Amino acid sequence: MENLDVTVLRALRDWRQAGRQALLATVVRTWGSSPRPVGSIMALCEDGAVMGSVSGGCIEDDLIARYARSAAKDALPRSGAPQFAKYGVTAEEAFRFGLPCGGTLELLLEFDPDAASLAALVQALDAGCLMHRSVRLADGLVTLEAAETPADLVLDAERLTNTFGPEYRMLIIGAGQMSEYLATMAQFCGFAVSVCDPREEYRGGFAVPGVRLLSTMPDDTVADFAPDARSCVVALTHDPKLDDLALLQALETPAFYIGAIGSRRNNQARRQRMTEHLGQTEESLARLRGPIGIYIGSKTPPEIAVSVMAEVLAVKNGVPLPRDMDVAHVKDRQGLAAAGSACKVA
Q: Of all helices (H) and strands (E), which one includes residue 276?
């Protein structure tokens, strides 16, 4: 599944290149709880077609209605300088538009964005570039600039600058059953997914549309993949010959998440192998996660995949997880409790 921002921008580009009127709505401020974060975008075509979202649906309905009512008092224009629109200012409005209690959001509406600028932006994003898109509030003039690092939306008295980046990427080592579940979930979350497995017997049974399937050795694949700060590497083979060198290669990159499946004992053995035979230290292995996932009592491959995907998303979004959700901590605590019970029985 494609990155949502790119999907919205591509649809908007196509509408404008076809000569159709359209607007781009961007969430620029929120107060209290809000359905969508700052920087979220939505495109609306003259025929009422919508791509993306800025809320749970009610605000979209209102924008469609106002955009269609060209003669009404509260109608939105079809051209001109960008305008701000605020929703949920009062409790009554919040209830009407389905916003959470106390939720308020403000949008910037751009009318008939330039088709050539949209085409250039989509082309840059398709090429894997990170881009700043800056809109002059006085007249809607757009400028594009390559960016070095991801950045939050910036709004001042003169312009709005939103940063659009290439898709988040996930490289999975191993093409087993759990890889299929994890790859599917990752795609739904907007990740571009690659799966690497040199074992033909595993690759032959792998069938997830949209996933790039590779047969090269995992450590070579990681090097070619060149993980960046929007990439994660997940090893799922349980085979040290495939996992270990790939993980070490990944640790030399700025990948935001690097981890391997396995029990506490297997992960401890992996760290011991890497320390004793591969020249690693506790410091160099500090970013290596394992056992991966959050503790949800998962037993089956799809449940374990949910657990792993949840942890990947938490790390991506900068959310610290409570210790009670750490798999190793919970398992250790359960082991101590079981040992205590056994002693009492004895």
A: helix 264-277
CATH architecture of 168-329: 3-Layer(aba) Sandwich (3.40)
Joined together, the tokens standing for residue 61 give 């309905």
Look-up of token digits 């798999």: 327
- DSSP lists the bridge partners of residue 154 as 161
pLDDT digits (tens, 9 = 90+) for 222-262: 999 999 888 999 999 999 999 999 999 999 999 999 999 98
Q: Are 314 and 294 in contact (CB under 8 A)?
A: yes
Contact 212, 194 (CB under 8 A): yes
Partner residues linked to 45 by β-bridges: 22
Instruction: Annotate 150-178 with b (16+ C-beta within 10 A) or e (fewer).
Output: eeebebeeebbbbbbbbbbbbbbbbbbbb
Domain spans of the chain, in order of start:
4-117, 168-329
* Residue among 237, 229, 226 nearest 203 (CA): 237
pTM metric for this prediction: 0.71
